[in-house]
Amino acid sequence: MRKKLLALLLILVMITFAVSGCKKSNTIKIGTIMSTSGPVSTYGIQTRDAIKMAIEEINAQGGVLGKKVELIVEDDEKNPEKTMNALIKLATKDKVTAILGGLTSDCTLAITKEAQQRNVLLLTPTSTNDLVTDAGDLIFRSCFKDSFQGSVVARFAIETLGAKKAAVLYDMNNDYSNGLTKSFRETFEALGGALVAVESYAGGDKDFNAQITKIKAADPDVFFIPDYYNTISLVIKQVGNQGLNATMLGADGWDELTGQAGDEAIGSYFSNHYSPDADDPDVVAFVQKYREKYNVTPNALAALGYDATYILLEAMERAGSTDPQKVKEALMETNRKFVTGNIQFDEQHNPVKSVTMLRIIKGADGKLATEYVGMVNP
Amino acid sequence: MGVFQQILQQTLNGLSLGSIYALLALGYTMVYGIVNLINFAHGDILMLGAFVSYFVLKCLGVTPGTLTLSFFISMLFCALVGILMEKTCYKPLRNAPRINALITAIGVSFFLENGARVIPIIGPNPRVFPTLPSVTYEVLGVGISRVQILVFAVAIGLMLILNYIVNFTRIGKAMRAVSFDKGASYLMGINVDQVISFTFALGSALAAAAGILFASAYPQVEPYMGIMPGLKAFVAAVLGGIGSIPGAMLGGFIMGVAETLTKGFLSSQLADAIAFGLLIIILVVKPAGILGKAIGEKV
Description:
Strand content of chain B: under 5%
Distance between the termini of chain A: 75 Å
Shape of chain B: globular
Number of strands of chain A: 14
Largest sheet of chain A: 7 strands, mixed
CATH topology of chain B: ABC transporter involved in vitamin B12 uptake, BtuC
Structural class of chain A: alpha/beta
Oligomer: heterodimer
Number of helices of chain A: 11
C-alpha cells in the first residue's frame, strides 16, 4: 500500500514538473523590479502600469518570437536590500533572462554586479546615476545620465535665469542626489557662477530648518535641491516658512511634485525626460492610451518604462532569442524614435537623449501644474 | 543676516523642534516613573495621533477651528489606545521580569507600525498632511513662522496643564504616590490600576499632540514617522533624568537645540552624533540624568 502511494506521489510530482515545463516554453518571462510601495510609490506604480500596457500591446500584436510575454512584478519598497532579494528571486525561481528595473539609482546600483554575474540582462528605464551601467556589458539604461542632467540645470540657471550665486541642499546618503550635486557644481562653476552654500542631510530627515537658515544667510539667486518629490515637498514647505526667495531648481525626481507640494513651489524649474503636454504624435498617442486605461496623466517615469519595454522586446525579436548575450548585441543596434525621444546606445550602454525643462505654475483649476519651458540637446 | 541673528534664528528653530521632543519625552518619563517600563511603542502613538488628525482635516478642511477640533479628537483617541495597550499588553506582565515587558513594548511598536502599513486606509505610502498657508513674522531680523508659534503655544500650554494635573489634583497626588512606592500606595487604598491607566492615557494624549505638531511642521504622514522622533525623545528623557517630568522637558529642549545648532554651525553629518554624544557625556558625569535623582538600591 505504502509503495503504491509513493508511486502515485512520484507520478503526480512528475506531471506537475512536466506541465510547468510546458508552460515555460510557451511564454517569455520578463521580470520587473519597481518600488510600488514606499516613498516613491507613485513612480513605481505608474512605471509598472506603463510596462504592463506595453506588454499587452505587444502580446495583442502576436508577442515576441511567436510567444506571449509574461511579466513578473516585484516590489522593493525603494530599499536596496529588497531589490537584491527580488533579483535573486527572479533569476532563480522564475528564471527570467531579462529584467526591467530597478527604479531609483540606489536600488539599481545594489544589483548591477549580481545581475551581470548571474547572466541576467538588466535594462533600467529610470536610474540616472552615472555609475549604473559601469558594472558590465549586460547592464543598460534607457534614460539620460545625471552628469548630463545636472549640467543642463546649471547651464539653464546661468544662461536663462541669469543666476550668479547658487545654493545646493542634497542627501549625502543617496547616489542620485550626490551625482547630480557633483555635475551641477562643476558646470555652474565652470560657467563663472559661484556656489555660496552647499548643505546636506541624511535620507529620512524631516527637519531642514537649520540648513535653510544657513542658505538664506548666503543669499543665493538659485537653490538647487536634487532629491525625490517626497523629500522636496517637505523642503519646500520649510523654505516657504522661512521666507527664502531664491528660485528653486530640481531634476527628474521632482516629477509628481505638483501633487504633493504647496503653493511655495510655484515658479520653480526642473529637468525631466518628457512633457506630457508636448505635441509630438508619439507622446500624444501614449498619453491618450495611458489616460484611457488608468485614468491619470502618465509621468515621465511611466513614459520611460513604456519605452524600455519596447526597446527590450524589439531587441529580443531582432536577436531571435532570449539569450542575454545575443539580446545584448541586438540592443546596441537600437535606433529609432520612442515616446521620450530617439534612442541609440553609446559604448557605455547609455542612450544619448535630450533633456526637457519644465516650470511649476498654478493651473487653471487652482492646482499646481507644469509648463514646458524648453528642450536641451546633448 | 548677521551672525547674531543667525544664532538667534537657529536657537529658535531648535527650541521649536525641541518642544516636540519634550512633549513626547514626557510620556516616556511618566510611564517609566510609574511602572519602570520603557514604552518603546510611544513613538508610534505619535504616528497614530498624526493620522487621526490627518483624517479629521481631510474630511472637514483646514481652518484653525478644525485644527483645534482635530487636537481634541486625536488626543482622546490616542488616550484610549494608550489605556487599551496597557490593559492588554503590559498589565498581564506587571509582575514578570522587566525584560519581558520591554520586549513586549518592542513588539507593540512593530505591531502598530506594520499594522498601519497593512490597513488600507493608512497604507505604506507617505501622504501630504494638510496645513494652513505659511506666514512668517519678522522680529529683530529673525523670522518666526506661524507653525513655530503654534508649536510653542500648544507645547507650553500642555506642559502647564500637565504640571497642574500632577501637582495640584487628587489623581496627580496618587500618581506621585504610586511612583514613589507602589506597594505602600496600594495598602493606603489608592487604586493603582486606575492610576497606571491614567498615566498611559495622559502620556499617549501628549504624544498625539506632538504628532499633530510634528506633522504640521513637517507635513508628511507615514507609518514609520514615529520611529526617529520616538528615539530622540527617549534619549531626551534619559538625558533629563528618566522619571523626572521637568527633566523630560529640559532634555527635549536640549536635544532640539543641540541638533539644530550642530546642523547650523558645524555640519549636518554630525547632528545625530553630537546629540547622542551629549547623552553619553551626561550619563558619564551624572548617571541619573540632569534632573534625575540617584536612588541607591539596597542589597
